[in-house]
Structures are given as C-alpha cells and as structure tokens.
Write a structure and sequence with these properties.
By secondary structure, the chain is α+β, with helices and mostly antiparallel strands. It contains three helices and two strands. Strand 1 (about 5-10) and strand 2 form a beta hairpin. The longest helix is centred in the C-terminal third of the chain and has 25 residues, at about 75-100.
C-alpha cells in the first residue's frame, strides 16, 4: 500500500484537506491549479457560484475530455505539421546563429 499524505488545498476561497499518495502529490497539485483556473474562468463568464458553478465547470471539463477522447477538437495531423514547421524554423535560426560564431 502506498504511503498517503494529507494535502491542504484552496478552491474559490474555501479550504479543503484531501488525502493523496505521496508519489501523486505533484500531479494532484497540478489538477487543483487547473480546476481553480477553470472555476475562476466560469465564474467570470456566468456570475454563478457555489454548487451551480462547480457543476457547470465539471460539465465543461468533462465535455473537453470527451472531445479529446473521441478525437474531436484535436487534429493530430495538423499538430504534427505545425511541430515539423516549427522545428524547421528553429533549425534554420540555429544554423544562422552558428555562422555568427
């Protein structure tokens, strides 16, 4: 059994204490940060609060996740082309820099 630790987090001004495995602490903190950001964004857009805000944010995150899971909203071939283009440009800039020295 993995060692668990207590972690104090804050979301929308409320403090929570949660348990997590020691080796998952960093990824959980990243998830908390992401959730806090999404909650704040949704609060600004909707002026909702409390449970309504939490449900609306959860639905938006679930929708985004399912879009990625089903390959919608994420165009891998286009992403690969953009990365290859950026790599070519970076290599060109580096080649020019090498000529300077």
């Amino acid at each position: 059994m993995k060692e668990a630790e207590m972690l104090d987090i804050s979301l929308l001004g409320k403090e929570y204490q949660i348990s997590c495995a020691a080796n998952e602490r960093e990824s959980l903190l990243e998830a908390v940060s992401y959730l806090a950001q999404r909650l704040e964004e949704m609060a600004k857009k909707t002026r909702a609060g409390g449970e309504t805000l939490a449900i609306m944010t959860a639905l938006n995150i679930a929708h985004d996740f399912l879009q990625l899971l089903h390959g919608r909203g994420f165009d891998l071939p286009t992403l690969k082309r953009r990365i290859a283009h950026m790599q070519t440009r970076i290599e060109g800039v580096l080649a020019q820099q090498e000529k300077l020295f």
